[in-house]
From TrEMBL:
Name under which the protein is recorded: Glycosyltransferase
Chain segments annotated as coiled-coil in the UniProt record: none
Classification lineage: Bacteria, Bacillati, Actinomycetota, Actinomycetes, Micromonosporales
All copies of domain Erythromycin biosynthesis protein CIII-like C-terminal, residue ranges: 295-393
Domain of life: Bacteria
Length: 407
């Protein structure tokens, strides 16, 4: 069967889907991933076909405002509009090129991808890394998971969903016109598409239980893990650093804070030294710089599945994939969230007892980071909770339910 996975965003929004694609290919399917050009190498390295989508989130993130305030969320929505407007034609072009039998759609592309699936008569399913559907059981992703009580959570969840839906209204109308589909009111369209196929959620029920008030079509599968290039080897410098002392801490912010590497690097190095720990700093999109010193090492791209189990703790932006990798490794975290779903996962890690209280990136200072490092390393409870969750996560197979559905 020919499968097309469509996803948009940063590397954290692409890597889990390459893992799914590898599993599908191993099951005998032909798989392509449609995403942005900077991720072509990662997709093709996994042995999957690549289809380009317009846009590059790096430029968007450079102007993003972090946080959960109304101003910050409005700014994030404004920055997302041009990318969303360009995605619909890109998805249609990818489908025309691949001619798939099955379409899998990530959170950001799903509202547009459903229109393309309707036009081509395709089986489709959502494949979401975060729980965006409203529920009474926890607060909305867009409010960082803050609870307003059962009915408040539901009301805020629907309000957040309506706000996000407004970003897609114009692009959906235009895309349906281009595809020759009839006009339809957005609420009716949403109901139709919720019935058109399931939505799989790629996180562990041990980390976030499936809400009891969700419709049956919304399923929680377990995490989807990125593949590791079999040709990858750690550098001699990294191996020597790890062998030359106690387990260090990892500090990296993934795709966040482009261009802020020097400032963040100074904070990270000073905090690690104040806490009395060695550190591995991953450059990421910020260009996080380690500086010189025998107690700090800067690295580029290193698989988290290899690196994190060798760490004493991990400091990260709490993106869904990075948060999952830390739990899988069984190491405690210091979350430094910026935007989107990161405050939600940061709060969840802390509530589970596997992480220090989140430090929003605008509030990151040497002393706050040093204090959090001392806390998670000095209290064995954090590591014990992370290890208990690791055992449960390791027993799950998040790809299996989707493979069963594909047939």
């Amino acid at each position: 069967m020919r499968i097309l996975i469509v996803t948009s965003g940063s590397i954290g929004d692409v890597a889990p889907y390459t893992g799914l694609g590898v599993r599908f290919r191993q099951a005998g399917h032909e798989v392509a991933v449609a995403t942005h050009a900077p991720f072509r190498a990662a997709v093709e390295r996994a042995g999957l076909g690549f289809e380009p989508l317009p846009g590059d989130l790096r430029a968007t993130l450079a102007h993003a405002v972090g946080g959960l305030s109304a101003r910050a969320l409005a700014r994030q929505f404004t920055l997302a509009r041009p990318l969303i407007a360009a995605l619909g034609p890109g998805i249609a072009a990818a489908v025309a090129s691949v001619q798939p039998s099955v379409l899998l759609l990530s959170t950001m592309v799903a509202p547009l991808g459903h229109q393309v699936a309707d036009a081509y008569g395709l089986r489709r399913a959502g494949a979401f890394p975060q729980p965006v559907f409203p529920t009474r059981e926890f607060g909305s992703v867009l409010t960082g998971g803050r609870s307003f009580g059962p009915w408040g959570n539901l009301a805020v969840g629907w309000a957040a969903a309506k706000a996000a839906e407004s970003l897609y209204a114009g692009p959906i109308r235009e895309l349906r016109r281009e595809l020759g589909l009839s006009r339809i009111a957005l609420p009716a369209l949403r109901r139709e598409q919720e019935r058109a196929g399931p939505t799989f959620h790629g996180f562990s029920p041990a980390v976030l239980r499936r809400p009891r008030d969700w419709p049956p079509a919304l399923r929680v599968t377990g995490y989807w893990w990125p593949p590791v290039d079999p040709a990858w080897r750690p550098s001699a410098e990294l191996e020597a650093f790890l062998a030359d002392g106690p387990a260090p801490v990892f500090i990296g912010f993934g795709s966040m804070a482009p261009g802020q590497g020097e400032r963040l690097g100074e904070i990270a190095v000073a905090a690690a030294r104040r806490a009395g720990v060695r550190a591995v700093l991953q450059a990421g999109w910020s260009g996080l710089a380690a500086g010189a010193g025998p107690d700090v090492l800067g690295v580029g791209e290193v698989p988290h599945s290899w690196l994190f189990p060798r760490m004493a703790a991990v400091v990260h932006h709490a993106g869904a994939g990075t948060a999952a990798a830390g739990l899988r490794a069984g190491v405690p975290a210091v979350p430094v969230p910026v935007l989107a779903d990161q405050p939600f996962w940061a709060r969840r890690l802390h509530d589970l007892g596997a992480a220090a209280r989140p430090i929003p990136m605008p509030a990151l200072r040497v002393e706050s980071l040093a204090h959090a490092l001392r806390q998670v390393l000095g209290n064995s409870h954090f590591a014990a909770r992370a290890q208990a969750l690791s055992a449960r996560i390791g027993a799950e197979d998040g790809a299996a339910p989707i493979l069963d559905w594909i047939g």
